Amino acid sequence: MRIYSWNVNGLRAIAKKNFFQWIEEEKPDIFCLQETKIQEDQLENNLRDIEGYYSYFSFAEKKGYSGTAIYTKIKPKNVYHGIHMEKFNSEGRIVIAEYDEFILLNIYFPNGQMNEERLKYKLEFYDAVLDYCNDLVEKGKKLIICGDYNTAHKEIDLKNAKANENTSGFLPIERSWLDKLIENGYTDTFRNIYPQEVEYSWWSYKFKARERNAGWRIDYFFVSNNLLSQVVDAKILTDIYGSDHCPIELIIND
Questions:
Q1: What's the CA gap between 103 and 61, in Å, rounded?
Q2: Which of 60, 104, 121, 212 to pair with 79, CA 20 to 30 A apart?
Q3: Is there a catalytic annotation at residue 148?
C-alpha cells in the first residue's frame, strides 16, 4: 500500500498546476493533503470527486486558511474530523480515517512563528495529539500519523541549523516534543530507514531557497511501533513541484 502526504499550500492553486497529473502518474492508494485553504462551498466537483477515490475534508472556520483532506481508494470504516478537544478543531487541521488494519491521522500541525501565544497553542496541540494517539495505541490500534509537523527534528533536517536555533520550527522545546513522540513508541519512518540521508520537504519561496536546496524536513510519516514491521519504505519526492512543500510517501505491507 502506498500512502502519500503533501502540504499543497492551496488545493485550488495546485489544481491549476500538476495536481491531477501527479495523481494519474503516482496512483496512490491514499493521499493526504494539508493546507488546502478551501471551504466546503468552494469545493468544486473536480476536487471533491476524483475518479476512484473517496474524499474527506476538514475545513477551517476562517476562510482561506489551513484545512486538511484525505483521498482514499479504500473506504474507511469511520472518519473523524478533529480530536476530542474543541479548542483544536476550529482550524480544520485534523482528519482521521479508520481502516481495519490501522488508523491514519492526517494532521497540519500549527506554526508557532507568529507570536508567543501561537507557539503556546502549537505546543498544547502537540500534547493533545500525543495523548489522543496514546489512547488509541493502548486500545490496540496501529497508527500512521502523517502531515506537516512544522518542526525540523535534528540538525540534519534543515540546511542552516545554527542560524535557525532561535526560530520557531527549530526551537529546543519544539524539537523535544518530537523526542517525546519517539519515547512514547512512535517512529519517524524516513529517518529510521535513512539515518544519514539529507533530504528536505519544505523550502521558503524567498532567496531561491529551493534552487539552492536550502530547505527543512518538516513533513513526516510517524507510525506506532506496533506497525513498524509493516513499513517497506519511506520517501521524500523532491522532484515534485507545485507547492513550497514536496510530497512524502510511505509504503507498507497491508
A1: 25
A2: 121
A3: yes
